[in-house]
Amino acid sequence: MESIYNLDYQNSSLENKIVIGFDRISQVFKTLLIEESKHYNLSPIQIQLLIFINYHSENKSTISYLSKEFNLSKPTVSETIKTLEKKKYITKISDKFDTRSYFIQITDLGKSIVQQTEQYVNPLVNIISNISEANKVMLWQSITNIINELNNIQLINSHRTCTNCQFYSQNNNIPYCALLNQVLKIEDIRIDCPEFK
Ligand code: SF4
Fold this sequence. Notes:
single chain; 197 residues; alpha+beta; Arc Repressor Mutant, subunit A; three-stranded antiparallel sheet; two-stranded antiparallel sheet; globular; binds iron/sulfur cluster; DNA-binding transcription factor activity; MarR family transcriptional regulator; DNA-binding
């Protein structure tokens, strides 16, 4: 099979160029995150875990959940959490039903670090916000379709998407959320919903 990194082959097809475009954009996320981490003496994964814990519920702030979410081994997540605890950015709270387990809670110091570091995505936010509404909706439809396909072949752990949710249904191809009690337009589809079941 021809390589999409071969420039003649890459430039001969739109799908090849789109894949290379995603590759470029994902590099930008990595670069921005690495740059941000240098300012705070944190590793990129430490920043990502702090941001995730800050914005998700307790049951998602456990070693098992985080290791699945970030595709990391449990020992790697445990070590990262230990370091964040030493820095006083998180605390461990014992599970009252199972004393061997705990969930992770962010401290006020951790929250202030999140407020500063989460800005690393702003250059991308600014670019996207300048796209027309119609093009944003088309882009969102393509992105959610790609995420669903990646989820189907288990290359992405996006459990919390509408199409995976028990409140989601389709009537005559029209998506509907029974919890919000509303038809879901393309722009309403979520890929990380706090109400997901
Ligand atoms: S909006 Fe939330 S609750 Fe409704 S279907 Fe989507 S994921 Fe489920």
